[in-house]
Amino acid sequence: MTTRQKRSYRRSMAVSAYDLTGRTAFVTGAASGIGRATAVLLAEAGATVHCADLDAAGLHETATLIKDAGGTAHTHPLDVTDRGQLHQAVTSCERLDVLAAVAGIMHSSPVLETRDEDLDRVLDVNFKGVLHACQEAARLMLDRGTRGSIVTMASGAVDTGGAGLLCYGASKAAVVQLTKTLATEVGRYGIRVNAVAPGWIRTPMTDRHDEDAQAHTEALMSRMSPLKRVGEPQDIAHAVLYLASDASSFTTGQILRPNGGVAMPW
Question: SUPFAM superfamilies per the record (predicted)?
Fold first, then answer.
């Protein structure tokens, strides 16, 4: 084998490790932000992508982006807190190789002012919605004998305390525990389970302030990062692609932290 052939072989091996051609992915929260970026990137890698979200108009836009680029997308307008809707959508897939459970909501209130209904609402979406999606996906993978990958969405909030983020941080900490526990239970069947814990990402969910306040917040977050910037949805989508693909075939029960270096846990 010539030097040129060796280089070409190494490049093809690197590309094929991330190739999802012939595989099917189910992405919740796909109407915008990290979920949309993830759905689009998984489709670019070759996957048929089932996009789920409460926002039907946003889902249509995501599917259009995928189809216009030559990919294949299906839409499922649903509420992740409705287990019946999730079951129907997931089981409509003939096979399932990848779940990216991205859907989530934000709530901010001081601990002493947090109401039970606030906590319940966040846990219903951010934890139970992820739990039910994981259960449905893992059951389908087991039924089909698929050596699949489940990717959950945690948060940098699990590593640092944040004023007003009790509900959000607690729900994401629960996702971390779910990820590790499920990984130990389904690993013997070739199913991998990992989480992504993003830092501050510029998405519709984090864009909750007026323009000046948003600029101030992003400047603050940028100063906290050794990279001196905030993240973009594509930064997280690439982390999901890594965990979804064969490039991470020996990785399970892990928390991948694309957070710009703002938290460096041991």
Answer: NAD(P)-binding Rossmann-fold domains
Decide if 179 is inside a domain.
Answer: yes
Q: Is 168 known to be catalytic?
A: yes
pLDDT tens digits, residue range 191-242? 999 999 999 888 777 766 566 677 777 777 778 788 888 889 999 999 999 9
As a whole number of Å, the CA-based R_g of the chain is: 18
What CATH number did the domain enclosing 103 receive? 3.40.50.720
Question: Pick the catalytic residue: 9, 18, 168, 242?
Answer: 168
Distance (Å, rounded) from C-alpha 126 to C-alpha 159?
A: 17
Residues whose CB falls within 8 Å of the CB of residue 13, separated by 6 or more in sequence, listed in order: none
Kindly state whether residue 9 falls inside one of the protein's structural domains: no
Residue by residue, DSSP assigns 94-113 as S--SEEEE-------B-GGG
The domain total for the chain is 1
Residue 17 is encoded by which pair of tokens?
A: 């490790």
| pTM for this entry | 0.91
* Three-state DSSP class for residue 207: coil
